[in-house]
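Running low. Got one?
___
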Amino acid sequence: MNFIITKVGEYELQVAYEVGLVRINSDENLYSLLDNEKSGASTIAAVVKNKYQAIFGKELDIETNSLAIEILGHVYPNKIIDATRSVPMPEKAKEFINMLHDKASVIDCGERGKDENRMIWDTIDAASRSFISI
């Protein structure tokens, strides 16, 4: 995986760009951006999609809001995982927490057919839009 520094405002995120897929490194830069910037996930999604278009000459076929929701849907559970890592627990539980943390260290965001969870994020996106319109 080749990560490219992608500037989002003053933050430098590490993003790997592949056909139909972007992978965002879930690190302190990402956490800081989301903690400090209103609508940070939406901004990240828009910037990443623009960079993808510049690289491949075509649009990433993921709705911007769906991509933003996916980013948040990975980051906040990962923060909880990070917080539990310092809690004393049995070795098997520690191994499980570490495995979850490793799996969440890179956020894989792919188009349908590349990301088996795309339908989940798209469904949450559609549901959130209907709540907002109420």
Remarks:
- The radius of gyration is 16 Å.
- Residues 56 and 80 are 35 Å apart (CA to CA).
- The helical segments are 28-36, 40-56, 64-84, 91-103, 118-133.
